[in-house]
From TrEMBL:
InterPro entries on file: SCO1/SenC, Thioredoxin-like_sf
SS bond partners: C72-C76
UniProt-annotated binding residues for Cu cation: C72, C76, H161
Alphabetic keyword roster: Copper, Disulfide bond, Metal-binding
Protein name: SCO family protein
Protein family: Belongs to the SCO1/2 family.
Cross-referenced SUPFAM superfamilies: Thioredoxin-like (SSF52833)
Keyword Disulfide bond attached: yes
Upper classification of the organism: Bacteria, Pseudomonadati, Pseudomonadota, Gammaproteobacteria, Alteromonadales
Superkingdom classification of source: Bacteria
Sections of the chain in a coiled coil: none
PANTHER family: ELECTRON TRANSPORT PROTIN SCO1/SENC FAMILY MEMBER, LINALOOL DEHYDRATASE_ISOMERASE DOMAIN-CONTAINING PROTEIN
Length: 207
């Protein structure tokens, strides 16, 4: 009888612990997570190695996409360097490959070779992506990002573009967007440490 009582008490304590655990607030990503993830419109872009990229090239991996260009003086090289540093941490929380796509918003100057020289410097996980504006703009807009198109007469110019980073899941759907922090006196870049934490939560919840 005493053993039965002990067993009953143990079971009640276990159930109470489960109820309490399930009622505790769980950490949520600070990024904007799309519920459900959003499909991308069909696209065809050019990789820095000359390959044609379509939606199928986003399947089976986690892909971080952001806009930039090789002549960018500040945000783009900073983001690339931050990604290179963060990639081991990002890769450690998933058994899927983790890739980074730099989407050039300066197709006039960013040739395939120029993109290859720029992106391969940071590692094999980086892909330089380009297209002419007629294909590029709808793709970038579909990601929820933007950029400006300089006038044909301009030669030495800067391109305004989003500094946010979009996460595409292994089903090739837009899963989340990481907004840049805007602190006076600093570059508007994404907090990589927070992004790593968010990515871990996202991968744990991904089905």
């Amino acid at each position: 009888m005493q053993k039965l009582l002990v067993s009953v008490v143990a079971i009640v304590a276990l159930l109470a612990g489960v109820v309490i655990f399930n009622s505790l607030p769980r950490p949520e990503p600070q990024a904007l997570v799309y519920e459900p993830p959003r499909e991308l419109d069909p696209f065809m872009l050019e990789a820095h190695n000359g390959a044609q990229l379509t939606n199928a090239d986003l399947t089976g991996q986690w892909t971080f996409l952001f806009t930039g260009y090789t002549s960018c003086p500040d945000i783009c090289p900073t983001t690339m360097a931050d990604f290179k540093k963060a990639l081991p941490q990002l890769a450690s929380v998933t058994n899927r490959p983790v890739k980074v796509w730099l989407i050039s918003v300066d197709p006039r100057r960013d040739t395939q070779q120029k993109l290859a020289d720029y992106t391969t410097y940071f590692g094999t996980e980086f892909m330089g992506v380009r297209a002419e504006h007629k294909n590029l703009y709808p793709f970038v807009n579909g990601l929820g990002l933007m950029y400006s198109i300089p006038g044909e007469e301009e030669v030495d110019y800067l391109v305004n573009h989003s500094s946010a980073i979009v996460l595409v899941n292994p089903d090739a759907n837009r899963h989340a967007i990481f907004k840049a922090s805007h602190t006076p006196g600093t570059l508007p870049t994404v907090d990589m440490e927070q992004m790593v934490q968010d990515f871990q939560l996202i991968t744990q919840q991904y089905q």
